[in-house]
Amino acid sequence: MILLEQISKSYAGGKVKAVSGLDMRVKPGEIFGFIGPNGAGKTTTIKMITGVLRPDEGRVVIDGIDMGQDPIGAKGRIGYVPDSHDAYDRLTGTEYLDFIGSVYGVPLEERRARAETYLNLFELAGAAGDLVRSYSHGMKQKLLLTGALLHDPPLLLLDEPMVGLDPKAALLLKQEMRARCDRGRTVFFSTHVLEVAEKLCDRIGIIYGGKLIAVGTLAELRSGDAGASLEAMFFELTERGGRDAG
Ligand SMILES: Nc1ncnc2c1ncn2[C@@H]1O[C@H](COP(=O)(O)OP(=O)(O)O)[C@@H](O)[C@H]1O
Ligand SMILES: [Mg+2]
Question: How far is ligand 2, taken at its centre, from the CA of residue 172, in Å?
Fold first, then answer.
């Protein structure tokens, strides 16, 4: 579902290498957790997967469609929730959802039905007529999630989705992620909260210093050390990664 071939990205005219030579595959029907400390390169990688950023080098393929060659086709397969929600403040929740639904060409009936389902699920229906500006971070997060689900995308990409969600909303989101994967849909999300990744993911990738330093199921990452927590592995791997890099 996601194929990344040797993608790299630097900022500030090449001075900051955010992601270097990243190779990764995410299979259909899996929940893939992308974990790493702050500044590791998670958001930069996600923006390259969504086509928001163009890689300096390498190739991104979504559901068999090359992002560089057919960006509109590739982006149509994706529902994306970024980590910051600054835009759209002048719209109401309903206006925002109508806008997103029309961008993705979702038929009106279908759009309204899905919007209603998720607004009710996330207990946001009462605020749908209010300006997004008046929403809390968690409410914006729920609205963007609803928008990302309107076209029932094969791939849901979430950057730090649990930040700002109350425990009930976080649980609903986790259930929705699992339900999608049971239908063969794919979910890719980043987090720096290890417990979330540990409980939810089919496979995990660990990024550190712009490089993918480990990838696999929790069992594969543990490789022998059956009792190891993801936290212990994470610190071992990132310390080792730091030494190798230094
Ligand atoms: N627009 C930007 N300009 C310059 N440097 C950036 C920019 N965005 C991110 N970076 C740098 O790139 C690196 C990776 O950042 P990011 O992808 O946001 O990591 P993460 O999401 O894992 O916290 C960090 O060193 C960050 O400071
Ligand atoms: Mg980030």
Answer: 22
